[in-house]
Specification:
By secondary structure, the protein is of the alpha/beta class. It is 40% helix and 15% strand. The protein is built from 19 helices and 14 strands. A 6-stranded mixed beta sheet has the order 2-1-3-4-5-6, with helices on both faces.
Length: 473
């Protein structure tokens, strides 16, 4: 049996609210989900599995279909985000036209939330809800057995469905095989924040114990499930042996267990594992000595979600942090020699021109190496989306409408309460300009340039931000 797992192209994504100057400055990161899925079935007898990252490789839907014809694949699995739904449909339709007998399954956040709508679109034969490793393995194991039950979480277009309706969460994450990175082109992955190549991504945990109103990864859940420190260190060592120079952790909150974070750092030092890494951390989790320990173990960069400089807005978001904690965390990380990235949002519930100014002032005070300002998009499945519908701030269930009838003209609405969309977008562009145009920031970036290519890349990105127009659409 031949299986192809695909991260779709990004030629027709849902249009972002981010300024195009920022959108164009992203790096390229491995499709961790399909690499985990590939690892889960590659040892099965008679199974040949391959991976395509069509987005990173610049492939079209027709390019993917050609590979299916050449490879004679029996099953194609597609990772589908709501933002990539149109591209995933293009791939599915191209594959069906090229090789009608190939079965196509959609997995990921979008079919988890909109399983029926995904199947009703036509080109997908099946859609999976929940984590996919165990269900995919069960499906492939029983592929040639007509009596094999439909795996949990999977529903076929003909109505056959597994039980339970959602694949159960995998409790023991240590038993998962490491992602099949050898099936991808390692050299194409890089981060705009780092001069090291190649990079890769890792997840040391799944699920998040916090209840931020704007956030939800429904297929991973809200219960923190962590891999052991030893298992994480082992994968980092394996990545380093493959020639990977930096690991970007995709955990919602790497530091949800401070004790485990310390254990990972101690193991890296004990085993002399030489690889750079960066994490997403909560400002309330670690202390100064923790950051110093992690820095000695190779930690280069910490991403902090601050979200707003207004205490009342932070409280309404159920963020569970304080501005004082943010100040302490950025100070401690900086004193440990770490780079920092701060995330802020604009257009939040209760947002005014004054509260946006408070966020900018706090960003400047915290003095991160990088700041990422974005407009709140109430995503499907999040508490803030449900609240918006109940309040009437969101006039209709537009995500459900898009899932049923996706259009390339769709742009996610924003939270228009005190400020309208134009005011929010203009304010966002002003925040970028005022933060990045400061001489201190420009001088700091120049000091850290390590190569001519880094200088060119940084200059191009900087110029786009410095000359960003007032309306970033």
């Amino acid at each position: 049996m031949k299986v192809l797992l695909v991260n779709p192209p990004s030629r027709r994504p849902v249009r972002s609210i981010l300024p195009p100057e920022v959108e164009r400055s992203r790096g390229s990161f491995p499709p961790l989900g399909v690499l985990y899925l590939a690892a889960s079935i590659r040892d099965l007898p008679g199974v040949e599995v391959s991976v395509i990252d069509a987005h990173a490789e610049g492939m079209s839907a027709d390019d993917v279909a050609l590979r299916v014809i050449e490879g004679g694949h029996d099953l194609v699995g597609l990772t589908v985000l709501t933002f990539t739904l149109l591209d995933a449909m293009d791939v599915a339709m191209a594959v069906k036209a090229a090789r009608p007998g190939t079965r196509i399954i959609a997995g990921g956040p979008h079919p988890h939330l909109f399983q029926k709508e995904t199947l009703d679109l036509g080109p997908f034969d099946g859609a999976l809800r929940g984590e996919g490793e165990e269900s995919l393995r069960a499906l492939v194991s029983g592929w040639n057995d007509p009596a094999a039950p439909v795996p949990p979480g999977l529903r076929w277009k003909d109505g056959r469905a597994g039980s339970p309706e959602v694949a159960p969460f995998i409790e023991d994450l240590d038993k998962l095989e490491f992602p099949a990175r050898d099936l991808s082109r390692l050299s194409i992955y890089h981060s705009v924040l780092s001069g090291l190549r190649p990079i890769t991504t890792m997840m040391s945990s799944r699920g998040c114990p916090h209840r931020c109103a704007f956030c939800d990864r429904p297929h991973l859940g809200k219960r923190f499930r962590a891999r052991s420190a030893a298992n994480v260190a082992e994968e980092m060592e394996a990545a380093a042996e493959m020639g990977i120079k930096e690991i970007v952790f995709y955990d919602d909150t790497f530091t949800a267990s401070p004790k485990r974070a310390r254990e990972i750092a101690e193991l890296l030092l004990e085993r002399k594992i030489d690889v750079a890494w960066d994490i997403r951390a909560r400002v309330s989790d670690l202390g100064p000595e923790d950051y110093k320990l992690a820095a000695r173990a190779g930690l280069r960069r910490v991403h902090f979600g601050v979200e707003s400089g207004d205490p009342k807005i932070l409280e309404s978001l159920q963020k569970g942090i304080t501005i004082g904690q943010a100040r302490e965390a950025f100070k401690a990380a900086r004193e440990a020699g770490l780079e920092t990235l701060a995330y802020f949002m604009a257009g939040l519930p209760g947002e005014t021109a004054a509260t946006m100014e408070h966020s900018l002032e706090l960003a400047i005070e915290l003095d991160p190496d990088y700041v990422h300002f974005s407009v709140l998009i109430p995503f499907p499945g999040t508490p803030i989306y449900r609240t918006g519908l109940e309040m009437g701030v969101i006039g209709r269930d537009y995500w459900s409408e898009f899932a049923s009838s996706p259009s390339p003209d769709f742009t996610p609405p924003v939270w228009e309460e005190e400020l309208n969309k134009d005011e929010i977008l203009a304010g966002l562009a002003a925040m970028y300009r005022k933060f990045y145009r400061r001489p201190k920031v420009i001088a700091r970036r120049l000091r850290r340039v390590q190569s001519l290519s880094g200088l060119i890349k940084g200059a191009a990105m900087g110029a786009r931000v410095l000359f960003m127009k007032g309306d970033p659409r």
